[in-house]
Amino acid sequence: MGYALSFLDKSPIDGDEPASHALQRTLALARKAEVLGFRRFWVAEHHNSPGLASSSPEVLIGFLLAHTKSIHIGSGGVMLQHYSAYKVAENFNLLSALAPGRVDLGVGKAPGGLPLSTRALQGAYDPARKPSFDAQLAELDGFLKHGGTEEIGADRLLAYPVPDVTPNRFLLGASTESARLAAGLGWGFVYAGHIHGDDTAISSAFSAYRDAGGTYALLAVAVVVADTDQAAESLKANDRRFRVEVENGQGVNVGSQEQAAEYARQAGATNYRIEERSPLVIRGGPARVRTELQRLHQRFGIDEFVIDCPVADAAHRLKAIEHLAPQGKAIAA
């Protein structure tokens, strides 16, 4: 049995160019991915990041759906801790009503930014009443699956509109706890290998997912692909990841030591620890990349790969999609 390919884009802004240029490139990538047979095209959520235009995936998803025809469009992912589960359900039910069968809701636990933006996003919350992430996810799942066919009482809260097809649901994570949570809700599980690519951790997470009844496993990987192995090795890519743990706070993954130190500063932490992670990065020409994807597919039983291209150059990212889909087919038999 083969695997499918999907693509994750963060809408990077090149220097001082307008954000509109980055978003138009994201559209061009989505259209190219659709033509070449990619299953999904996902957009990320990042806050207070001047080099990225993807602060609101729901808005961008609606735009991409309107300008594509068949490819699944979704979030990779919505950072649920900041939001009302009810409002997220309304957003994605509406998107699904607009484009039946094509909408993916990927949810992540990370903040998608540093403490300054987190405080701005959660300023209206009473911390004592804020539910746990697990409780939020279960609530969101309930709002998405209500079906709308039951008789509705005066006090029954439902998330309208009711789409003909509910959005596909995925949990993004890199732990056995996230894997079990996804399986328990019947969601797909996306292991964030592009952030933490340790083989043992990947294996443990997918084993936990399947042991808990999970049925659809996706692996996010960073891919740097060029015409030849040598050309790929020479490309500069933002493929380093750092984990910062602060005392009595949420641990997060960031792209540099400087960002990790800034996270600790914004959090007001004097006691913190920074360690470099080992992301799963595949470098090489098309043949080498496909060989490694096949190895991972066989090693971990991956149903689908979500490709993150850490090279900012727009022309390279467009070419990367073409390299990954020989003869216009992004699905391996």
UniProtKB/TrEMBL annotation:
Name of the protein in question: MsnO8 family LLM class oxidoreductase
Domain Luciferase-like: 15-298
Residue intervals passing through the bilayer: none
GO molecular function, one term: oxidoreductase activity
Record's keyword annotation contains Oxidoreductase: yes
Stored Pfam families: Bac_luciferase (PF00296)
Domain of life, source organism: Bacteria
EC number in record: 1.-.-.-
InterPro entries for the chain: Bact_Lucif_Oxidored (IPR050766), CmoO-like (IPR019949), Luciferase-like_dom (IPR011251), Luciferase-like_sf (IPR036661)
Keywords: Oxidoreductase
